[in-house]
Amino acid sequence: MNADQSPERTPDGHHIVVRGRKWRATDPAVPEETAARLRRHLMSARRAVRSATTAGDEQAERAARSRVHRAKVALGERGTPWWEEPEDARRRRWEQGLESLDAEDDG
């Protein structure tokens, strides 16, 4: 897969396949601008995990892993499967997740 290609999806669209392994797909109902902001939070949090791990800072690592988890839940990649949630719950999930991550960055 090239960087400009989308990963293969399972026939039901619920998962992507990367190197033969299935991962839950991002909720397709998340507006693209919101999804992009959530992905930026996710990548920032992953970098923070790496930095904290390298520094041996367990508290910072826990905080960064929590941010990774919140971003992935907001994207629909963790937690209740997005295809099982009512539409209003899906919207609430990504709106609250983004609000929480934005507030943490502002704080």
Describe this structure in words.
The protein has helices at residues 32-55, 58-75, 87-106, and strands spanning 8-9, 15-18, 21-24. It is mainly α and 107 residues long. It has one domain (29-106). The protein has a 3-stranded antiparallel beta sheet, with no helix packed on it. The chain is globular, with a radius of gyration of 15 Å.
Protein traits:
107 residues, globular, mainly alpha, 3 helices
In terms of topology, how is this protein built?
Layout: E1 8-9, E2 15-18, E3 21-24, H1 32-55, H2 58-75, H3 87-106
Antiparallel strand pairs: 1-2, 2-3
Short structural description:
The protein has helices at residues 32-55, 58-75, 87-106, and strands spanning 8-9, 15-18, 21-24. It has 107 residues and is mainly alpha-helical.
